[in-house]
Design brief:
Blueprint: H1 17-21, H2 28-37, H3 40-87, H4 92-102, H5 106-143, H6 148-165, H7 167-181, E1 190-192, E2 197-203, E3 207-211, E4 217-221, E5 229-230, E6 236-245, H8 250-266, H9 270-273, E7 279-287, E8 290-299, H10 304-322
Antiparallel strand pairs: 1-2, 1-5, 2-3, 3-4, 6-8, 7-8
Helix pairs in contact: 2-3, 3-5, 8-10
């Protein structure tokens, strides 16, 4: 003997979700509406007017949420990798080989890796954001029922047309990509690109932003950089040409210069900036009534100017005490 189940709500009706939704395979949302309401009219209203838009909206939200999650994960991975690069997490064998090849001490190599990691991290995060969000945008357009084939075909044609009109931009992007891969310079380096000279503040795939000694900010397209001189990579060299009277004793002057440079290299904080024993190369030129004697010091990257200024001051005091006459070279 079976007992009839009384409907819980007064407007419930007999039927099935297939009949109410007018579909042999109704959507999950339409089936859910029928199971909750058991009302044919309400279920048909939902199926006709709300099922499609709400389902589309649901998948758009899911797509955007997934894209944002993937973007966050990608950014975290890029940041973690670049931080490991900056911290110099490499084996001792690789570290020693790098130090030998680049002729720099571990502290300078770590600083260099940190600069490169910062630059690469910024560019890689931008590329990841564009790829992930661009894919999500096309998925959303597909969910809205747009035919993507004509759009992609039009985009290809437009891309070819824009490519001919934007050759300089493409050249800038390619130059920036190879610049980053080859580690030509990075944020914090002091570079000379011919048209401008200064400290690099930001590097993108299209443009390099640098600030010169006067505080002027220069924006240089990467494709316009034909050659670059980097004064901050691995190590630098301070070269001083000291002119003295032609009648001075050359060996005595060289000894004074060597002793002065050695004392400076041993004093703090210059002992951390001078990487090797100073060297007096000897007479560089004979200019009128002057002998030009060259002194060379290998320095930390970007600090050759500071070292050269300090050595000039010490040489001036040494010459005054020793009675050596500083001459003016003939033009």
């Amino acid at each position: 003997m079976s007992l009839a189940v009384e409907p819980l709500l007064p407007w419930t009706q007999d039927g099935s979700p297939e009949a109410a939704c007018r579909d042999r395979a109704p959507s999950a949302s339409c089936r859910l509406v029928w199971n909750v309401s058991h009302n044919t009219d309400f279920t048909r209203f939902y199926s006709t007017w709300l099922d499609g838009p709400l389902t589309t909206l649901f998948w758009i939200i899911v797509t955007l949420v997934v894209a944002l999650i993937l973007k966050s994960i990608a950014h975290r991975m890029i940041t973690r990798i670049t931080l490991r690069m900056a911290e110099g997490t490499m084996s001792e064998r690789v570290r020693e080989r790098s130090r030998t090849v680049f002729e720099g001490n571990p502290a300078l190599l770590n600083k260099r890796r940190a600069q490169r990691a910062q630059t690469l991290g910024s560019v890689l995060r931008s590329i990841a954001s564009v790829l992930i969000m661009g894919t999500a945008l096309f998925s959303v357009l597909g969910s809205l029922g747009l035919n993507l084939a004509p759009i992609l075909a039009s985009a290809s044609v437009i891309g070819v047309a824009v490519g001919f009109g934007a050759q300089n931009i493409v050249k800038d992007l390619l130059a920036g990509l190879f610049m980053l891969l080859e580690d030509q310079y990075g944020v914090g380096d002091f570079i000379d690109v011919g048209t401008a000279k200064g400290t690099v503040e930001a590097v993108t795939l299209r443009v390099t932003r640098m600030r010169d000694m006067d505080g002027v900010v220069w924006y240089v397209p990467n494709g316009e950089i034909k050659k670059v001189g980097n004064e901050s990579q691995n190590w630098g060299r301070a070269v001083l040409d000291i002119p003295v009277d032609i009648h001075e004793d050359t060996e005595r002057v060289k000894e004074l210069l060597q002793n002065t440079a050695d004392e400076m290299a041993a004093d703090a904080p210059w002992n951390d900036l001078v990487l090797e024993e100073p060297s007096v190369w000897g007479v560089q030129a004979l200019a009128g009534d002057a002998l030009v004697i060259r002194v060379v010091l290998k320095t930390a990257p970007g600090r050759q100017g500071d070292v050269a200024r300090e050595l000039r001051e010490r040489v001036k005091r040494t010459f005054d005490e020793a009675g050596v006459t500083v001459a003016t070279p003939a033009p």
